[in-house]
Every structure is written in C-alpha cells, then in structure tokens.
Write a structure and sequence with these properties.
The protein is of the alpha/beta class. It contains 19 helices and 13 strands. It has two domains: 284 residues, Glycogen Phosphorylase B (Rossmann fold), CATH 3.40.50.2000; 151 residues, Rossmann fold (3-Layer(aba) Sandwich), CATH 3.40.50. A hairpin with a 2-residue loop joins strand 3 and strand 4. The radius of gyration is 33 Å and the shape is globular.
Amino acid sequence: MALEGQDNSDMSESMRSIPEKKHTDIWQLFREAQQNILYLNKQRMMAMEELDNMKREKKVLLDRIKQLEIKKQLSTRKDKLSIRSELLLRLDSMVLTGMIGTGEASDLRKMIMDSKVTVADNFSDILHKRDAELLAELCQFSDKSKKKGLHIVHICTEMAPVISVGSLASYVTGLSRALQRKGHSVEVILPKYATLNLDEVQGLREIEAEFYSYFNGQLHVNRIWTGVVYGIGITFIQPIYYSSFFSLERVYGYSNDFERFTYFSRASLDYIVKSGKQPDVLHIHNWQTAIVGPLFWDVFVKQGLGSTRILLTCQDFDSQCLEQPDKLGLCGLDPSRLHRHDRLQDNTKTHLVNILKGGIVYSNKVVIMSSMHSKGLIIHSLSYGLESTLAVHKDKLLVAPCGFDNSTWNPSMDHFLPQSYSVDDMKGKAVCKIALQQHVGISENPSIITVGCIFSEVSDVDLENLKALVCIASRKGVQFIFMGMRKIEGINRALESFEEELKLKALRYGAAPVAATLIDNQFRQITDYDFESTEFSQYINNTFGNVSLSRAIDEIKNNPSQWNRKIMEAMTKDFSWDAECCDKHVSAYTSILNL
C-alpha cells in the first residue's frame, strides 16, 4: 500500500504537469506561428516592393526601347523632306568646291524644290553617291514644274533639339516643320557650337571646302558642316581664326557677344552668296542676328539677292544690345551712315547704336511672338524704350502666337501618361489625375478640384494674396499642387515663353488656364490699345480671361456640365505650330515678296 500510495502521488503530480506542459507548448507554437506570420508578411512586403520596382523598371525599359526605336527609325528611314534637304546641301558643296557655277546650282535648286516627291523617289541613296555621280544624275533629271512653295532660310542662334536655351529653339524647329508640311522649303544656318547635340543630326558631314567671310578688316576662313534634323537642312558655320567664339560653355552671356554674333551674321550672308542661294526670305531672330538687316541692304542686296526679302522675329524687346557705333565697322558697315535717329541710334542713349532697333528698321516685316498680348499693348507698355521706333514702323509689325508639336503634346497618344484620353473618351483623364495625386502624396479622388500653380518667383505681397486664396479655396475642398522655379539671370525670356506655352498645352490636355486670383477681370487690359491680337488671345479672353479662380471653382461645383463643355471645346482647338502661327508667317512672307 505504501508503494501503491507513492505511485498514486507520483501519478497525480505527473497528471498535473501534463496541462502545464501542453499550455507551454501551445504558447510556444503560437509564438512560433506569430513569428512565421510576421516573417511571411515581411517577405510578402519585400516581394511586393520588388514587384513594384520590377514594374517601374519594366516601364522605364519599355519607354527607353520605344525611344531607341523612334531614334533608329529617324536615323535609318529617310523621308522625302530629308532627301530634298540633303540634295540642296550637296549642291552647296559642289558650288564651294568649284564643281558647278552659281547659276547652274540655282537652276538645280529650283528643280529639286519644284519636284520634291519625284526627286525623293529617285535619290533615296544620296549618301552613297559621289558628288560627280550625283551631279550627273541631277543633270539628267528633267521633271520640272512651276514653283509653288517659298524658300526660307533661317539665320539663327538656336534650334531644338540641336541647341536649346530658350523659346527661340522650339519656335525655329516647330515653325520650320510646319512650313515644310505645307509645301515650303526651309533651311537653317547655325553657329557650330562646341556644345551642339550632334546625335540628333542625320548625315552630318564636313563640306570639303572652305569659304571666306569679312570681319575686322580682313577675310577669314570658315569651315562648313551640313546635316538634317526633322527633314530640315542645317548648315553649321565654324570660324577658324575666331574659333573661340563658339567653343564656350554657354550660348549667351559673354562680354564679346556682339562680336561673336556679328561675325556669324556676316559669315552667314557671305556663305549664302558664295553658295549661290537665292532664297525668297531671310528669316532673322532677336538682336543676335538683327545686324543681318543693315548688312543685307547696305552690302549684299546687289550680290544676286535682289529678290530676297528680310523678316525679323522678336521673342520680346528686353534684350537689344547697345554698342559703340565704331564697332559696326567690324562687319563692314559704315557707322557714320547708321548712327542716326531713324536708323540704329538708340532712342535713349544716343551716343550708342541699338542692334535690335537696326533689325526693326531694316527688315521688311517684324513678327512679335506673343500669344496673349496685342500689338498696341506691346508698343506702349512692353517695348523697353523702343516705343517711338515701333510706332513709326507699326504697319510692318505683326503679332503671332507660340505653338506646340501636335504629335508630341496630345493626350490621345502621349505615352508618358498612365492612360490616354481624348474628347471622345475622357475616362483616362481621371486615371491620370489619380496618378498625379498619388505621385505628389495628396488625397486620391478624381472628383476633387485640383489646381496646379507654377511660379518663377513670388514676392511678399503675392505670397500673402496666395495664402488667402489657398485658404479660401481649401475650405471648398480644393487641392493645390505648387511647382517653383528659381529665376536665373539670362533665362527670364524662357520662363515667360514657358508660361505662354503652358496655357496652350493645358488647353490641349483639358485644363483651364485661370488667373491665380480671387478677383475677376484680370486679363481685360490685354486689348486696351487695339484689337490686333491673336486668335488664341481672343479665345482665352472670351472663354477664361475674365474668370478668377474663385469663380472657376464655383462654376465647376454648381454648373459642371457647362464647365465640361468649355474644357472639351478647348481640347478640340488647334493651337499647334501648323495653325495660326504658321498661317501668319506665310502671310507675312507672301506680303513682303510683293514689296
């Protein structure tokens, strides 16, 4: 019984320890399960992050592949305009090497420009032909027709995507492409900067000849390079003796800018005469090539260019280039003849000459690039001391709007958007809006009114007004996305042009350009002086010009159908380079040819 009692006691104790052990084991299993779950969740999160990274990398890779495919197509597939441009540049080479005379070259140019379609079909392998072989084939080519298009040569300092600093670059390229699409022949002459983006140039080659240009009392040697961008023939002028002029880090902003661009302007005219070109219009730009005007009429018009006319484009008037009169002698001009009030003498600092004023006086037509301002407002308020000159030459002033590339800035085919959309199918716009909200970290809701504000700089007064505007609008459930741009000396013109281009592109993508103010009637002063403003300006004024942000928010909330009709109508408007901008330039070219 004692043994039996001992066994019972041990058994009882053993029985008590079983639940405790089970309890301990269960908690141990629970802790292990918890750790496993946490581990699995961590692995799952890492896998999701890796998947997101892979998706982003895949998108970047696909975008890169698409860009490479486009670039490959551009480099391997020659369109008809490219072939025609290369043929014209090869003729320049033949003239400079003495293979043909200027008269024969002029006839061949006319033939190429008149029969551009047939020429492209017969000379698609132009790069593989020697000059002698190519000349023989051109001489045998007999398909001639009456000339229909104009021949325009731009003498400029920028062209996208080869060299871009401000608004001039996209303007030269956009307008030139639009003109060629409408049957006109366009060439561009640029300095051969050390910073050129030559990867964008097709068929870049140095012409095996040099030509002389006059500068500083002597003839100086220049090399010529040619190529094609977007079907537009480009000539690059490279000075030999003054090689440092264009081997700098920047395009503008040096103490010898007058000498640099005067050399280039004179060399461009010497090259045109030497190569036997007889363009209908020499299109010059801003003060940098405005000296072409006086040079043309005082020196070059009698050198086979009697039927050529001059058109000057001004992006604005805040940069004019004032210099000592005797410096005009560097390029062969007579300072005593030009330092007069009705010619190049500056209106305020009368002891100096004003190069931009000279371009205005000596051009047959002056185009002022502005989408929103009228001619009268520009003359009276935005002329920077040139008011009297512009008033005298008012009849030859023309205001033209900026534009944009319709194929690039198009929500129905923009591959940078998460989903495309159009007036016929606006569903993708909501997807794009959510993606934007997610990207900047604000509430994701396509029905929330979202306002994008871009500023180059904000003064203390503006900042207080902006705070009040945001505070009031936020109470109405409005989101704000701010983008700031630091204003840097020398690019003010680019920022101002960017604001104008932004209005054009915003309309294209279904966003209204509304003044960031709580007060209405902000744009009415634009047409105070006259009604010679652009169609774009008139449309903006009539549709959105007198609408404050506060009023726009109320209209979106209280009358969404009317607001949506405005937006969809705006999306159908054509404000590309091919539209009003190109039409106004063609009208200007045509009018001066009849002078």
